[in-house]
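Friendly challenge for the regulars: who can give me the structure tokens for this chain first? No prize, just bragging rights.
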Amino acid sequence: MQQNYQDTMAMVRKFGKPNLFLTFTWNPSWSEILNSMEGVQRPEDRPDIIVRVFNKKLIELLEDICKHGIFGTVLAYIYVIEFQKRGLPHAHILLTLDSESKIHTKDDIDKFVSKELPDPCTDLRLFQTVTKCMVHGTCGTININSPCMRDGQCCKSFPKQFKDDTEENVNGFPIYRRRAT
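First reply, four minutes later:
Bragging rights claimed.
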């Protein structure tokens, strides 16, 4: 752990502070995992397969980010893989971008981050993926036993208010555009 910290600090000294923090989590519905299950096995029963598929997907993601420049030119990156309570992997990735690629305005934020549902008429597959994998579950007064509930409130502050425009750097974090349409 100390070595990871030292490596990160060396990266910061040479390239500056990271600009993006990404989390990449395994998905139990990945076809490569499901196709490897035998009989009544569940993905959680085969951590060997999960880790192998996760590592391949992580390498593909890093290639898309670094070689194909989906966020722009990456000067440096570092990541750590952690294992959740049940031993399932996720990666935390720090990216340092060149000055041309850095996010400077709310329009830059909106170019990379969307907190809105895709149009199902335009892209049904994307809509289905987002609603299945990225939508916060029911909580609040409807489901007070949800794991995110603390003292009668959602610890993730859901439901979020609709906003026509992204607000930059409110208490260190943007408040993302969420339109009702």
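The radius of gyration is 19 Å. Residues 104-180 form one domain. Your move, everyone else.
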